[in-house]
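Key idea: predict the complex, not the pieces.
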Amino acid sequence: MTDVHLTAETTGRPHADLLVEIDHVVFGYDASRTILNDVSLAFGRGKVTAILGGSGCGKTTLLRLIGGVYPATQGTIRIEGKVVDANDPEQLFTLRRRLGMLFQFGALFTDLSVFENVAFPLREHTDLDETMIRDIVLMKLNAVGLRGAASLDISEISGGMARRVALARAIALDPELIMYDEPFAGLDPISMAVAANLIRTLNDTTGATAILVSHDVAQCFKICDYAYLMSSRGKVVAEGTPRQLAESEDPEVRQFIRGEPDGPVRFHYPARSLAEDFGVGA
Amino acid sequence: MTGVIDGLGRRALELLRILGHHATFFVELLRACPAALRRPYLVVAQIHAIGNLSLVIILASGLAVGFVLALQMYYALVTYGASESLGLIVNLSLTRELGPVVTALLFAGRAGTSLTAEIGLMKAGEQLAAMDMMAVDPRSRVLAPRFLAGIVSMPILAVLFSSVGILGAYVVAVLLIGVDAGNFWSIMQSGVDVRRDIGNGIVKSVVFGFICTFVALYQGYEAKATPEGVAHGTTRTVVIASLGVLMMDFVLTALMFSTP
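Result:
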C-alpha cells in the first residue's frame, strides 16, 4: 500500500466487532496467475463495506473466498473468529445458511417463476407453511418494487428486474451477512437509487453486515461506511471512509474515483508500439 | 525415445485423472441420492420431464421398428417355410436387444442432450453456484433427481418400445401379410421366457439408463461455462453414451445369453 493509505487508527474502522476478517490472503485459480496478492481486509459487524476496483481485480473472487467456494492459497479468512475451511462441507453449510449473496448476473433459476425464485431458500431451509412463505415472498418483492411481478416467468422480466428479484431472493432469509456482487450493474438510474437505498435500509433496520463489490464509486460512496480500493494487481491500494478516499491525493485512488483515463492505471493492455503494429515509422 | 515415453506417461496420467474424476462424481452422485429420495416429488417431476416427454419419439420409433422387423423377418423366414416363427423372432429381437438398445440410443439423443444442455446452462448462468451459496447442494437438488428419474424412466420406455414394436409387427404380419394371428401370438407365448428374455431385457435397460443419465449429467456438470462448452458437452453425451450402451450391450448379452 502506498503512503496515503488510511490506517485503521485514522479511519475509525471497527476493531472490536469484526464479522469477517481476511488476513494476508493469496489466491490464484491456477499456479501461473495470482488473482489476490496478499490482501488483508476487515468487515465490521452491521456495517456496509464496499470493495471498489476495476474489472478483473479480484473483487468477485474475494466474495467467493469468503463464501468458501475456493480455499485460499495462503492466508486465512475468518468469520466471527472462525477460520473458513472450504474443504469442510458441514462448516460451509452452517456458514452459508447465515449469508445471502447477490450474484453479478442474478443467477435466477430460469425454470421457476419470480415468486418461486424468492421462495426457494425459504422452502429449502424452513418448515414455514405456504401462507407464511407467500407473505414473506411478497414482502421481499415489495421491498424491491416487484410485488406485482410475482407470477411472471424469469423469461418475461428485464435484466434490471432480474437483478432486483435476485436481491429479494438474497435477503429472503434475513441473513446476517449479505454479499452484493455488482448490485448496480445494468440498472436504470431509478432502480439503481432504489437498490442503493434498499441495501442501506436493510443494513440499518436488520443490523446485517453488507459487503458490496462494485466499480460504481458514486453509488457506493452514498451508502457505505467504509471502502477498500483494489488494484488490478490484486492488492488493496487504499482504504478508508468514503470522505477520506474522496479527499485522497494518491494518484491511483484519484484516477479511479474521478474516472481519469490517464494515470497509474493503464487503459491499454500491454502491447507492442503502434508504429510496430501498423508498420509505420520503421 | 524419451519424448515418446514422456508422451505416453502424460496420456496415462490424463486418463487416470479423467477416470478418477468420473469416480468422484459418481460417488458424490450416489451420496446425494438418499436426499433426493426423501423428496420424491423432485424425482417425479424429472420422470415427467425426461421420461414422459420422450414417449412420442420412443413410441413412434418402436412402431416403425416393429413394421420393418416383421417385413424383413417374414421375407427371410418364408424362404425356409418358417414364417410361423415370425412372432417369436420379433418378440425376442425386441425384448432382448432392440427394445433396450434402440430406446437407450434414442434416450441419449432426446433426454441425454437435454439434460446436458440444461445442467451446462445452469452452470453457465451461475444457478448451481447460487444454489451452493444458499447452502443447497446442487447434487441433491438438481443432479440426483435427474439421475434417479433416468434410471426409472429407461426400463419403462424400453418396455413400451418393445410392446409397440410387437403391435407394429402384428399389424404388418397379420393384418397386411396374412400370417395366422393365433400362430403369431401362441408361439410367442410358448417361446418367450419372462425371466430370461423380458427380465434380462429390463435389466439391460436399467443399466443403459444408468449409463446415459450418468454421462449426460457428468458432461453438463463439467462443461465449460460457455456456449461452446455446452455444445461440446451435448455432443460428447451422444457419442459417449451411445458407445457405452453398445459396448455394455455386448458384455451383458454375453453374460445373460451365453447358454442356449
